[in-house]
Design brief:
75 residues, 0% helix, mainly beta, 4 strands
């Protein structure tokens, strides 16, 4: 995979920031832990959030990313 972005949004769709950006990934399984902190290490307020993933394949270079999202709640 050429690039994987993990982006944080509120449930209302407001962009919070980039949680992770990985490049040149090998095939396999990857896991990420949610700590309750945002991209700037500030503790997130209680509420609903979404992690949105965008993964760009290595070839062709003009390929569009595959996308997925996961919702979670901080209490």
């Amino acid at each position: 995979m050429r690039r994987l972005d993990v982006l944080l949004y509120t449930a209302a769709g407001k962009y919070v920031g980039v949680m992770a950006r990985l490049r040149d990934l090998l095939p396999g399984a990857y896991s990420f832990g949610i700590t309750g902190r945002g991209p700037t290490s500030v503790q997130l307020a209680p509420g609903r959030y979404e992690l949105r993933f965008a993964a760009w394949p290595t070839l062709p270079l003009e390929a569009k990313p595959t996308r997925a999202q996961i919702s979670f709640t901080i209490q």
